[in-house]
Write a structure and sequence with these properties.
Mean pLDDT: 97
CATH topology: TIM Barrel
Order of helices and strands: EHEHHEHEHEHHEHEHEHH
CATH architecture: Alpha-Beta Barrel
Helix content: 40-55%
InterPro entries: Aldolase_TIM, OMPdecase, OMPdecase_AS, OMPdecase_bac, OMPdeCOase_dom, RibuloseP-bd_barrel
Active site: 60, 62, 65
Pathway: Pyrimidine metabolism; UMP biosynthesis via de novo pathway; UMP from orotate: step 2/2
Distance between the termini: 16 Å
Bound molecules: cytidine-5'-monophosphate
Family: Belongs to the OMP decarboxylase family. Type 1 subfamily.
Largest sheet: 8 strands, parallel, barrel
CATH superfamily: Aldolase class I
CATH class: Alpha Beta
Radius of gyration: 17 Å
Number of helices: 11
Organism: Centipeda periodontii DSM 2778
């Protein structure tokens, strides 16, 4: 049975491949993540299509620009009625505050339920070398925690973070803060380009609210069985 804690990433290039994957997953998946690949190819129509099928949608576009542009961009996305939207915390406190205020005001003015707004902390594909290469001197874990605190201060509902940082964020930001974790790899599945990974059970145990699972489901020989295995593992915790 579907469980909103599992968000399947629709990281496929065409409308046909998206529709086929959603059909194959059937009622095992209730929540989808639409990211850059599909949104840039198809625009908002794919979000509307999923909503018409009573699926929930995390529209993962990681907005990162000046405060005014991000705020207005979110207001445009609001009209697609996604359930979760996100910005990149690297845009800083002022940007996140403006984003949150703009989204809440627009939702109220237009009579649309306000989506959750979350902040990407540090991409789960980055490791310590990538981080140092950008000139950062502290650890990724410290940066993630600092960014999670800033997101909370700015009024965001939660963050995207790797499962490795989840327990500490949960401790510091409290029970109500959403922690959405990509970088999920069931035992025996390739890490691909991800670096800070964990199993579904490990992520739930660490305190994740929702798991984003991409390749481990859509690239599996049988995506439905792969999704059901992830669900079973989550429910066993
Ligand atoms: O295939 P895989 O499970 O690695 O896909 C993870 C998904 O989560 C991708 O769509 C990626 O864009 C997204 N994501 C991530 N790390 C973040 C934020 C989003 O991997 N920090």
């Amino acid at each position: 049975m579907a469980d909103d804690r599992l968000i399947a990433a629709l990281d496929v290039p065409t409308r046909t491949s998206a529709e086929q994957l959603v059909a194959r997953l059937g009622d095992s998946v209730s929540y989808y993540k639409v990211g850059m690949e599909l949104f840039y190819a198809l625009g908002g129509g794919i979000v509307t299509w999923l909503k018409e099928r009573e699926k929930k949608v995390f529209l993962d576009l990681k907005l990162h620009d000046i405060p005014n542009t991000v705020g207005n961009g979110l207001c445009s996305l609001l009209r697609l009625r996604p359930d979760i939207l996100n910005v990149h915390t690297a845009g800083g406190l002022r940007m996140m505050k403006t984003a949150s205020e703009a989204l809440h005001s627009a939702a109220e003015a237009e009579g649309i339920p306000c989506p959750k707004l979350i902040g990407v902390t540090v991409l789960t594909s980055m490791d310590a070398d990538d981080w140092a290469g950008l000139g950062h001197t502290g650890t990724i874990a410290d940066a993630v925690l600092r960014r999670a605190r800033l997101a909370q201060e700015a009024g965001l509902d939660g963050v995207v973070a790797s499962p490795a940082e989840t327990a500490e964020i949960r401790r510091v930001c409290g029970e109500d803060f959403l922690i959405v974790t990509p970088g999920i790899r069931p035992a025996g599945v390739s890490n691909d380009d991800q670096r800070r990974v964990m199993t579904p059970a490990g992520a739930i145990r660490a305190g994740a609210s929702q798991l984003v699972v991409g390749r481990a489901i859509y690239a599996a020989a049988d995506p439905r069985t792969a999704a059901e295995d992830v669900l079973k593992e989550m429910e066993s915790v």
